[in-house]
Amino acid sequence: MHENLKIPEKGRHRFTQPLGKLIAGSRSETIPKVESLIKEFLNSGFKINVYLVGDIVTNDFLINQFLREFIKLCIVDEKTQRSQIKIRYEEYFEEIIEFKNPKGTIRKESFNLLNQMIISNKRILLKIIEGEEDLLVLPLVITLPLIQNLKSLVFYGQPPITDSKNPIPEGIVMVDVNRRIQNTVKKFLSIMQKE
Question: Which of 51, 92, 132, 157 gets the most CB atoms within 10 Å of its CB?
Fold first, then answer.
């Protein structure tokens, strides 16, 4: 990508829709459901790599002994709904990288940075020290390689959306990365404003 991308004013609501499967419920309800889904994939013979975007979902996975083992990359900004949050278990990561990503934007450098982190095969914590992490789910999804018998699962928190025609409950979104999802993300990226 040669330019920074920004969410357009028109069509902003499209970026709030879940990108994958919404696992609805509170944190105490969704984490056991996520465990069950991952166990189903393992029983079907898949290897699992987990990628997390957001502080709450990152903390919830890190404190879970079972889920923690699958984590490859976490993208956080150490804020949740405008308040500070501290990531526990920083020692779990082999590398911690700091990055700036302005609100409502995807910096062009993020594509290459995410690609380098994925191919390094290290457990990495990417800290957004200025701006926010939410939109980085898009370059992450299109950067992940599609490998046979490997499930690359991207998880992020879904806040409740009550002011639209189709309200969305709170929960966790699981993106099972495949060609169809990557094509959907490319369409999102194509309607963003180039800067």
Answer: 51
**Predicted structure pTM score:** 0.94
DSSP conformation letters of 10-76: TTGGGGGS-SSEEEES-HHHHHHHHHHHHHHHHHTT-EEEEEEESHHHHHHHHT-HHHHTTEEEEEE
Q: Which pair of structure tokens corresponds to residue 83?
A: 């308040």
Domains in the chain, number = 1
CB-based contact 135:105 (threshold 8 Å): yes
Over residues 90-139, the pLDDT tens digits come to 789 999 999 999 999 999 999 999 999 999 999 999 999 999 899 999 99
User: Under 8 Å CB-to-CB from 66, ≥6 apart: which residues?
Assistant: 35, 38
Residue 167, Cβ density class (10 Å: 0-12 exposed, 13-18 middle, ≥19 buried): exposed
How far is Cα 156 from Cα 51, in angstroms, rounded to an integer?
A: 9
163: Cβ contacts below 8 Å, ≥ 6 apart: none
Closest CA to 128 of 95, 159, 156, 101: 101
84 by Cβ neighbours in 10 Å (0-12 / 13-18 / 19+) ranks as exposed
Domain that holds residue 106: 5-194
Which residues on adjacent β-strands are paired with residue 194? 5
